[in-house]
Structure formats: C-alpha cells, structure tokens
Amino acid sequence: MINKLITKIKETNAPIVVGLDPMMKFIPAQIRQAAFAELGETLEGAAEAIWQYNKGLVDAIYDLVPAVKPQVAMYEQFGIPGLMAFKKTVDYCKQKGLVVIGDIKRGDIGSTSEAYAVGHLGKVQVGSNSYYGFDEDFVTVNPYLGSDGVNPFIKVCKEEKKGLFILVKTSNPSSGEFQDRLIDGKPLYEIVGEKVAQWGEDCMGDDYSYIGAVVGATYPEMGKVLRKVMPKSYILVPGYGAQGGKGADLVHFFNEDGLGAIVNSSRGIIAAYQQEKYAQYGEAGYADAARAAVIDMREDIAQALASRSI
Q1: CATH architecture observed for domain 2-309
Q2: Residues tagged active-site
C-alpha cells in the first residue's frame, strides 16, 4: 500500500491528504435540512448529513489528491449511525481510487490491540467465513504502550499489505508535556522515532517502509531531526493551515527526492467556504471551495519545495 500511495502522490503532484473530519457546524444548511427532513433531528439524520457532505467533498477533490483521512471520533459521536457513515465514506473513497488513512489513534495491548488491527485493517473470522470490518488502507496508532501495542498492527499490515502511521511528535500545543521530556539526553519523541525506524526496517515497500510516523507541521525543527532519524519512513504531517503550519514549515519533512511526507489539512479544506478567502463560493459551493483550497495548498507546498532546491 505504501507503493500505491507514493505512485498516487507522483501522479497528482500533491503530497496532500484531506482530513474528512465533519462537524455539524461545517455542514451547509441545505444538506442538514434535507437530511433532517428525511430522518428527523436524530442520530440517523446527522449521519445522513455527514455522508452527503463527505460525498460532495470527495466528488470535488478525488482527482487532485492521493489520499483522505477520516477521523473516526467525528463519526463515533453519532453512535452506530455515525459509524455507518464512516464505513460508507471509507468505501466510497476507495471506489474513487483514493488511499484511505483511518485516523483512529488506537493504543492498547494484546488481544485488544489485535482486535483493533483486525477491525480496521484486516479480516475477522465468523465461522468458516472471514470479513473486512472498516477496511482502511492505513491507520494511525499510539505507541506509548510499547511494542505490545504496535506489533499486532504490524502483523496484520504484513498479511494485508497495508500500513501504519505511528504518533511520534504530535501537533497539539501540550504535546511537549510528555513527548519533549529528556531521557538519557534525548527527547522522548526522538526515541520513539528511532523505534519507528526499527519497526520499519522489516516492513519495506520498494523505497519506503509502510510503517510511517505522525509529526506535526507546527514543529518544523523537530521534523528536521526526525527526518534524519527515520529516512525510510513516510511522515504524515498534521497541523497545516488551521493549526498554523504553512508550506515553508514543511520542507524539512521531505527527503531530497521530494518524497517522504504527506501533509494533512482538514477544516482548512472541508470548511474552506467559511473562510474569507473562499467566501465567494457560499454554502452551496462548499465543495468547489474545497477544491480551490486543495489547489492553493498544492501550490504552496510546491513553491516551498522548489525554493529549497534553489
């Protein structure tokens, strides 16, 4: 799957993943009203609104980007109907040829970790049959319980030829409370990065490992260090746009080959119509605004990478 992701990044010239993180305040009124008219102001109505919103977004951007990243919490809050919308979104994105990164941030041990891995990446056995559950291509994993929590995911990835993005240095302001703590003279995030590189050595695609890392765009200098620590690991970079990251912050996350990183933007794209820059599209044109935001982001990253090589 890492080979497919890299191929699609090259084809689109867009090392971008769109975070499908729907919130009711992002969904245009006409979509909410239609869903509520059909199903009422219920969990089912909310889930239908999410699904229709996502479908419009995907239809507008699938030819521009290689991947999407639905955040499962935004769906779980609406219970079982929300999870059904999550699954419909995953399936639809795959039909459109997109790589799907399930942002699930699971972190547990033993049989529990194995069940998460099977449910999101692998097949579950039911009598003499086996079935895919959510069936994403990659998922995000919290490694802070140690190898016991990660190895079950790696096992399923090897079986299914799928991949992981492991949290190393996250983009949130308080991440340093734990991740920046020095241990034997090194920050904890660097030690985790070394472990990711080690896990990845046994899980190689053609040029990069399918065991990648999450490193926030809001910490570019740390990204520079971690790029050297994990030279064969793809880095998923959250924090672009709404969280303050910009193209110039991203250059050190990429290798000299122009690969090695994929940058996430969520509300900066999916709710672009609410920004002054894209306000002319209006609510009805939310998907066209998202497309314009993707094109602008692609150009911003391309300019930053080009300036690095001058």
Answers
A1: Alpha-Beta Barrel (3.20)
A2: 105
